[in-house]
Amino acid sequence: MSARIDAFLQLGRQQGCSDIHLAVGCPPMLRMLGEIAPIRYRDLSDDELSALILEILDESQRSAFARGEDLDFSYAPAPGERYRFNVFRKASGVGAVVRVVGTTIPPIDALGLPPVIKTLAQSHQGLLLVTGATGTGKTTTLASMIDFLNSTRKLNIITLEDPVEYVHQSKQSLVVQREVGTSVGSFAEGLRAALREDPDVILVGELRDVETITLAMMAAETGHLVLGTLHTTSAVKTLDRILDVLPVDQRAQAMSFLSQSLIGVISQCLVPTPGRQGRKAIVEVMVMTTAISNLLLSGKTVQIPAAILTGRQLGMQLLDQALIEAVQAKEIDPDAAYMQAHDKKQLQRFVTDPKLLPQVSLVGG
Description:
Blueprint: H1 6-15, E1 19-23, E2 29-32, E3 35-38, H2 46-54, H3 59-66, E4 71-75, E5 82-90, E6 93-101, H4 116-121, E7 126-131, H5 138-152, E8 156-161, E9 174-179, H6 187-194, E10 201-204, H7 210-221, E11 225-230, H8 235-245, H9 248-261, E12 262-272, E13 279-287, H10 290-297, H11 304-309, H12 319-328, H13 334-340
Parallel strand pairs: 7-11, 7-12, 8-9, 8-10, 10-11
Antiparallel strand pairs: 1-2, 1-6, 2-3, 4-5, 5-6, 12-13
């Protein structure tokens, strides 16, 4: 007997949405191509929504939720179907956001990413970061990288995820997926355990605290390839975030580590295509070079974008560069590209909706 919530999940998947939002006082809503729209259904009451969610929780999850804790878990109602749930309480009652996970892992070549990303993924050791805001496709990019390595090299790959989304079948490599909260207590605990499990590659779902960041650095320094994510929107902001999170007395050591063991930073966003029929990943790519290493060590991170700009032959690109090129190639919507740009002046000439542009005030003298 299927759970009642499955009908909403299957509707969302059929419609091609990325997320399903369930909140008291509103009908279920679907996020389609970055925008939220309600489905034709009555407003959900607190009792109805609570019953829908409680039906798919196990005893430990029910106990945790009864104590007022938020829940993060994956749910697979049928073969080939997988969803990531975040369940929480808000002022008006229970709420949930459900990420619809793709049924298959897209090949890395199908994502339309720059070729340098495949090169970076083949590094034998060091730290490689994929960053971006929530819902920008970081999980898909990382899953495709892992699948690429799994298909082409004989490695021991350990993933630490919260929760597991894409499920990998071992191919050339052995892939061991561990879920925070069920098979391991925390990312830091999982990392400590992974270092004793003869890994070649470790994927850390999120570098969210000092201990996890420190352990990830140690793993990268001791001969492993470590893939991780941060919620930052550019290479420079990623470097600054790592240094800011760490205690003052650890920053010099971290700066030295980043200069020597950071492979690169891939910062991505998803931008609607012309006609808004789909979305394309647009990425900023920073590859650690001697020049960027020296800028980092001397505290001149503000000059790193200029170094990225001149590193095209190494596959580097700034986000704004990538946006302009994708607009010129008619791969993305120019208005949406303008909204994503860091330096919006560079994208102004492509904008089709004048309301998006800053209004110039003409004051008479």
